[in-house]
Amino acid sequence: MDGSSPATQVIGILGGMGPAATADFYTKLVALTPGRRDQEHLKTVIWSDPTVPDRTEALLGRGPDPTPWLLNGCRVLREAGATLIAIPCNTAHAFVPRISDRAGLPIVHMIGEVAQHLTRRGPSLRTAGLLATTGTVRAGLYQECLARVGIDVLLPDRTSQANEVMTGILAVKAGKRSDAVGEPLARAAHRLTDRGAQVIIGGCTEIPLGLPPQAIPVPLIDPAVVLARALVRRSGAR
Amino acid sequence: MDGSSPATQVIGILGGMGPAATADFYTKLVALTPGRRDQEHLKTVIWSDPTVPDRTEALLGRGPDPTPWLLNGCRVLREAGATLIAIPCNTAHAFVPRISDRAGLPIVHMIGEVAQHLTRRGPSLRTAGLLATTGTVRAGLYQECLARVGIDVLLPDRTSQANEVMTGILAVKAGKRSDAVGEPLARAAHRLTDRGAQVIIGGCTEIPLGLPPQAIPVPLIDPAVVLARALVRRSGAR
């Protein structure tokens, strides 16, 4: 933004899933906005409702449907003046088809943005490894979006998914930041790169909080960064 | 919070002053909330409006009054369901007397909370050094609140205020995170500890982002942390 053409979008962040990931996402959005002073940054409203029922439990048929909570959040953001909605939670994207018609605002689709981002890395990228919640994996969100751009998704086996990926994600949600978090995630990532993954998608917003990029031998894609860049582009603050 | 008594408060954060400080404040609030899973965290709504006119410029009579922007933010937070308001910007507290009657919600006063916090450090604490914007210093916010609890405030001299403190704050707002930010702030802090300051108050939310606690020989008080702890206590999430 050059100061003469202020951004007209008001970013609505449907957050709280989890709250640490929401804070991290807003931090990244601010850092990636090229403002030199406060007044060049983006107007943003954040609804952070950590009481939204667990998305993975719902997708596995073991818990309540979070759709009403998500629709309530969209209403709050709309009434607060947001002009578009970003959801910094991968698993919640499984519910986007249920809310998009009723949200009243465009939803910038994080996983669709990741697919577009990966195509920009060039045609030699054919295989991406996915670290995500069991809910995201079962819902097939990345598999579907990446298939459309010709990229295969490699998944952890059942044991690694349960004992390494979910253990790491839940440890981040519980506020742990030690090696106890990063090591199981790094082991799961290495199993995927050994099988040919050319990038690792940190497909749960908690994963980049627990897994340092230097712990794996290929690029770590952070969907939160990809989404933040997409918002900056769309808002005209570039 | 023990899970059986969920917090009933909805935290409203009047932010954007600046946006990086708002992101940092929400990160601290989440980290200081003792939840073990998402659902134990606090419902929070954040209105981050970086277009609020510069608070220091207004206090020095060189820019527009930010009061209408602050009242608009209070309205958004109230309509979104917030039950109390926190303002993670020290300088904006100079305008609290103009908005508190019309905000429609209680404002948890960051500087008042810092005064209470300092009294809990014991009666030997008599002198605090203040690093803050020129607007905060001129408005006398800390001087007034700390005088009420019997603590003197030491201020940088005019040259240090302009060339070290404001230079450091504006560098953080511009996204700089290098030694170029920390060194002038640390020099200003050392001048105050040389004169007898027993603690340094990082009295602008940008300062703890640029000044590492280990760079100064006395405790660095971060008002954002003090405010976050006050919110956690009041919300019942302890």
Automatic annotation (TrEMBL), chains A, B:
GO molecular function: amino-acid racemase activity
The keyword Ion transport belongs to this UniProt entry's keyword annotation: no
Keyword Isomerase: yes
Enzyme Commission designation: 5.1.1.-
InterPro entries: Asp/Glu/hydantoin_racemase (IPR015942), Asp/Glu_race (IPR001920), Asp/Glu_racemase_AS_1 (IPR018187), Asp_race (IPR004380)
Matches recorded under Pfam families: Asp_Glu_race
Keywords, comma-separated and alphabetical: Isomerase
Family designation: Belongs to the aspartate/glutamate racemases family.
NCBIfam families to which the protein is assigned, alphabetical: asp_race
Name of protein: Amino acid racemase
Biological source species: Actinomadura rudentiformis
